[in-house]
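Hey, I was hoping to borrow your eyes for a little while. I've been puzzling over a protein and I'd love to understand its fold better. The fold is given in discrete form, as structure tokens running alongside the sequence. I'd be grateful if you could look everything over and explain what you see. No rush at all, and the record is pasted right below.
>
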Amino acid sequence: MNIFELLWSLLVAECDELGLVNWEWQAADCALGKARSGGEEVGPNPTDRAKNGTKRSWLVEADGGPLGAVVAPANQNDQLLLSETIEALVVERPRPTPDEPQHLCLDGGYHNEPAREVVKEHGYQGHIRPGGVEPEIPKGEPKHPPRRWVVERTLAW
């Protein structure tokens, strides 16, 4: 563990102790970036004429606080990084219970069976929005407000 990870884990642990980490709603997503100087986790970026690039995969809590991160080559699919990102938490995640479930919000890149299996395997209730499609919510079921934007904001920072 490097010094950054140590400080990060201490900060998240302290926030969790103060009740400031909202474990009920979490979100995960990836972002591509340039890797001009190379490095170990570099691959051809599919959106940038195969120039060297990296992919950052983040898991955040309901307010956008980062809980886990993974860096991989740019040519990795988002769904392949999901399990590794969930397991990269810098603090121990409380177990979800029927009274206190944990929801995981994902975008259309995770709208497939392997990603749904990872979500289930880690004990989350998945909320995966298919790309460009407004999901139809059956009558009587609660409509949850959008919560995926927090991971987009954290990635942008």
